[in-house]
Amino acid sequence: MKNVAHTLPFLIRSHQDLTMASLCFHSLSKSDPGALVVLYNQGGLSNQELQLFLRNYDLQVQILGDGKNVGIAPARMACFVFIWENYPSIDYISEIHVDMIFPKKWVCKLVDFLENTEEPMICPGILTLGGELHPEGKGTPVIKQIPLGNHDQMDELLCSFTSNGIVEGFVHPVLHKSKILKKIGGYDLRFLKGKQGYEDDVLLLNYRYFMGTRFNWRPKCLLSVRVFHATLFQRMSLPGKEKDFEQNLRGLIYQFGLKGLIELCEIHQDNTEFPHLVEHMTNSF
């Protein structure tokens, strides 16, 4: 779709990652031919190798970065700023990953939803490599074998797990209204010093305050769209992740304080981490 830009921090750790990236770009070029993809190269391939790799797909790709892993939030933010400065007519910005497979018209349905609601962002439902439906079916596999190599079969499979419902929850990919994403500032890198961890929570808090806490805003998933997301945590095998998470959590608390953690308890009602953090902080006074 011409009014959508996709953003992607591109990190390749292994041949398996490269295989998933190929499936990702193939499905994206079939579901959204000629789509604008702003990609930040974070390692695994040189920019020249990446350009050769991308020639196989019907996509308009802009490559940022030079193969250095600067972290998720800086890479995403660089993509956002590039779009705002160079494609100001873009209405919607997605956040995608290399380990995703997209069905036909997935982004059209998300755009239709945003065009007809006041919501600032929307997620689809996802199917994981473990055969689980998220966000509504965590812990309960619904299928054992995923046809990764066959796009038509995968498209049919993903379609079979759709419905007309909307549920509260948050997963990737995400589609944002560009103007609102810009209004809230995207990812504030003054507070997100680590390469990964809690960047989604910072964004959700900004949306919650933008929408007004009196409305008890929470992120939502449109179940008429189902996207395959293989690992959910591709970067969890990278060294130093504990330090990165600690840095970003410290930045989140510095930016939003105890009130922010309380709001995250409301946003993530099935998550026990934030209530424990709130209890720890209140007991430390």
Give me the count of strands: 10
Task: Return Rg in Å.
Answer: 18 Å
What is the domain tally?
Answer: 1
Average predicted confidence as pLDDT: 93
What is the highest CATH level, the class? Alpha Beta
What's the tally of helices? 9
What name is given to the CATH topology? Spore Coat Polysaccharide Biosynthesis Protein SpsA, Chain A
N to C succession of SSEs: EHEHEHEEHEEHEEHHEHH
- Reported CATH architecture: Alpha-Beta Complex
As a percent range, the share of helical residues equals 40-55%
Q: What form results from the Cα inertia axes?
A: globular
State the major sheet. 10 strands, mixed
Class per helix and strand makeup:
alpha/beta
Q: Report how far the terminal alpha carbons are from each other.
A: 52 Å
Strand content: 15-25%
- Flag low-confidence runs: none
Which superfamily, in CATH terms, is the homologous superfamily?
A: Spore Coat Polysaccharide Biosynthesis Protein SpsA, Chain A
What features would you describe in this structure?
The protein is an alpha/beta fold. It has one domain: Spore Coat Polysaccharide Biosynthesis Protein SpsA, Chain A (Alpha-Beta Complex), CATH 3.90.550. The protein is built from nine helices and ten strands. Strands 1, 2, 3, 4, 5, 6, 7, 8, 9 and 10 form a ten-stranded mixed beta sheet that branches. Strand 1, helix 1 and strand 2 form a beta-alpha-beta unit. Helix 7 packs parallel to helix 8 (241-267) and helix 8 (241-267) packs across helix 9. 39% of the residues are buried. The model has no long low-confidence stretch (mean pLDDT 93).
